[in-house]
Amino acid sequence: MANSADLRWLAAAARLSARARPLSRPNPGVGAIIVRDGVVVSRGWTQGGGRPHAEAVALNGVDARGATMYVTLEPCAHVSARGPACADLVAASGLARVVIGCGDPDPRTAGEGIARIRSAGIAVEQVDCPFSRASLAGYLAQRTKGRPHVTLKLAMSLDGCIARANGESQWITGAEARAHTHAMRAQSDAILVGGGTLRADNPRLDVRLPGLEGQSPRRLVLTHGAAPDGWDALPSPEAIHGLRDDLYLFVEGGAGAAAAFLRAGLVDRLLLYRAPILIGGGRQGVGDYGLSALAQAHDRWHKTDQRQLGKDTLEIYEANPCLPALSPL
Length: 329
Ligand SMILES: NC(=O)c1ccc[n+]([C@@H]2O[C@H](COP(=O)([O-])OP(=O)(O)OC[C@H]3O[C@@H](n4cnc5c(N)ncnc54)[C@H](OP(=O)(O)O)[C@@H]3O)[C@@H](O)[C@H]2O)c1
Prior knowledge:
There is one protein chain. The chain has helices spanning 4-17, 54-59, 86-91, 112-118, 130-135, 137-145, 175-186, 195-201, 255-263; strands spanning 31-36, 39-45, 68-71, 97-100, 123-126, 149-156, 161-163, 190-194, 218-222, 232-234, 248-251, 269-274, 283-284, 301-309, 312-319. With 329 residues, the chain is of the alpha/beta class. The protein folds into 2 domains: 4-138, 3-Layer(aba) Sandwich (Cytidine Deaminase, domain 2); 146-319, Dihydrofolate Reductase, subunit A (3-Layer(aba) Sandwich), CATH 3.40.430.10. An 8-stranded mixed beta sheet has the order 10-9-8-11-6-12-15-14. Strands 2-1-3-4-5 form a 5-stranded mixed beta sheet, with helices on both faces. The protein has a two-stranded antiparallel ribbon with strand order 7-13. The two termini are 42 Å apart. The mean pLDDT is 94. The site of NADP nicotinamide-adenine-dinucleotide phosphate has 30 residues, from β6, β7, β8, α8 and α9.
């Protein structure tokens, strides 16, 4: 049975896996930690382009005999031209125990990775670890829904406005919140605004953080028309089902694009940056997304995190996956 120490190590492996994001795409960013007697022996995360995998990095050059490996995703069971199956590497490692945070829905691995490790006499425990699942959100969205994980970001005033009535929107939030947004961009595969925002602001949408300038994601515009140079057009929110190599999509508004994604039930996470200002009579952050009764708005979101960023507050909400979209496909 997994115990609380196991869950702490799995949480640490999930944090480690963030280093793989987004460079591992289209492979999942996985984290692995090898521990003996409470001491870290080795660790690894998925490398750029998806190989080597986290387990191969963690096992490389290490005497793992008798130790425990904590890994966020079930070790793969398929051989690739770019490397061996991790389940075989783990089976030959001499590890005493493997604790897995999330099963792999890839039919080439699902259950087979665990079976192969067990058949080598290694104890395997699969835990349904929320930290592991959260760290694999993009991969799981692609595997189970055939689309990237979608985060909608809104920078708003206390009265829910994203711009003045005349369109002026720079800046609502302060430097700390904007830096946080840039860090979120750097973890995304693609970033999107609506055609209205492109015409109003012509935003760069790049990452302006020291050391991460090279990590600016691809730019998409939601539009019925064509995209200018340097942008790709997305003709509808539903067209994200064609983005099969992207694990994480970051939607930065405006109100029309936000409403279109919400109406289609294609927002998994909300990032609300709230500045302590009142705009009054400004442009609302979210357009009409198809509510026909107030009751329909309830229970769609639950808060998972909240923090202060300078003068501003960041709130993070996750969508309730059990409720259908207001306007399903
Ligand atoms: N504070 C913030 O966080 C923030 C963030 C972003 C923007 N803003 C502000 O928001 C304002 C712009 O917001 P907005 O609501 O006018 O524009 P918007 O949401 O950026 O864009 C609306 C446009 O998106 C496209 N669109 C919407 N639904 C679609 C669908 N289902 N299929 C295909 N295309 C669709 C259409 O583009 P086409 O007309 O090209 O077909 C539509 O005109 C600006 O003032 C900007 O500064 C603020």
